[in-house]
Amino acid sequence: MKWMIVTDSSCDLKELETESDEIGFDTVPFIMNVDDREFVDDPELEVPKMVDAMEASAKSHSACPSPSAWEAAFRKADNIIAMTISGRLSGSYNSAVVGKNMAMEEEPGKRIEVIDSLSTGPKLVLMAQQALRQIQAGTSFENVCASCRNLAESAKTIFTLSSFHNLVQNGRVSKVAGFVAGKLGIRVIGVGSPEGEIKLKDLLRGEQRTMKKILREMEENGYDGSEMAISHCMNEGMAQRMKEMILQRWENAKVQILPTRGLDSYYAERSGLIICYPVARA
φ and ψ at 15, to 5 degrees? Predict the structure, then answer.
C-alpha cells in the first residue's frame, strides 16, 4: 500500500472512508485494565460494558500501545502519517517513535512521520480527516505532515466532565477536582493547554450553563464555523444540544458528533464531552 494514516485509539474514529486501495487507515489500541479484566480498545470493544465495570471498580489503569504494535502498523505502507494522544498525557508518542525507528531499520526507504496531537479524541479525528483529504488531492508527504502539525498546534480542545475519578486515580488532575466533580450536579470545564496538558477552568452547576460557557470560550478564541468535532461518552443528547447551540451562533458550521472509543471513554467517563475546534493562528 502506498499511504497509511495511523493513530492510536485515542482517536474516536473506527474507520476512515478512503475510497482508494492506495490509502489505508489503522488504529493501534490502548488497553484498559479494570480489576482483573482487560479491555482492548479495538473496534469490537463494548464501551458501555467497560464503563459499567470501571464504575464498579476500585482500581483500574490504562496502558499505551507497545512499540511493536506501532511497528506492525508501520509495515503496511510506504508513506505513513502517525498521530498520537498528547505526549504529556501518555507514553504513546514515545512508543510510536520507537516503533518508527524499528520499522526504519528494516525498511530505510519508508517515510514515517509521528505527530503529537497535543490533545486526544476529536482532534485526532480532524487531523486524520484532513490528512486524507490532502493525500487524495495529491499533496506531498512533507506538506501533509506540515498541515497536520499546524492543526495539532492551532486547534483548541475544551471538555466537560461530571466525574474525574480515573483522571485523578491515574495522576492526570488533582484530587480536589475529583472531589468536586459530580457533587450536586456540578460539571467541570477544562481545556487542553498549548503544551498538551489538562487545565481546569470552571465549575458549573447544570448542563445549560456549562454549554453556554463552552460557547463563549469558543467565541473568545476565534472559532469561525470551520469543521469541528464533538466526542461524547454515552451522552449523545448533550452532544446534540451542544451542536444545536453552535449552529445557532455559526449557522454554517460543520459539526460532527462521535461516540468516544475506549481510551477516551475511560478518562471522560459517563456523560463526558470533548470538543475540538480550529481557530486561525496569529
Answer: -150, 160
For residue 14, give every residue at least 6 positions away whose Cβ sits within 8 Å of its Cβ, in sequence order, or none.
27, 43, 261
The three grid cell numbers given for residue 226, joined into one nine-digit string = 470551520
Instruction: Supply 223's cell numbers.
Output: 472559532
CB 24 within 8 A of CB 5: yes
The dihedral through the CA atoms of 182, 184, 185, 187 has a sign that is negative
φ/ψ region of 205 (left if φ > 0, alpha if ψ in -120 to 50, else beta) reads beta
Cβ–Cβ under 8 Å, residues 214 and 189? yes
Check residue 199 and give its pLDDT: 87
Residue type, 73: A
Q: What is the pTM of this model?
A: 0.93
Nearest CA-CA partner of 92 in 112, 123, 118, 129: 118
Of the pLDDT bands very low, low, confident and very high (cuts 50, 70, 90), residue 17 is: confident
Q: What is the DSSP string of 78-108?
A: SEEEEEES-TTT-SHHHHHHHHHHHHHHH-T
Greater model confidence, 143 or 169 = 143
Query: What gap in Å lies between CA 22 and CA 136, rounded to an integer?
Result: 10
C-alpha–C-alpha distance, residues 98 and 95, integer Å: 5
Q: What angle do CA 208, 211, 216 make, to 5 degrees?
A: 125
- What whole-number distance in Å separates Cα of residue 47 and Cα of residue 60? 15
Using 50, 70 and 90 to split pLDDT, how confident is the model at 206? confident
State how beta strands 3-8 and 79-84 pair. Answer: parallel
Give the CA distances from residue 89 to residues 85, 93, 133, 215, in Å, rounded to whole numbers and listed in that order.
7, 10, 28, 26
In this structure, the strands spanning 156-161 and 198-205 are: unpaired
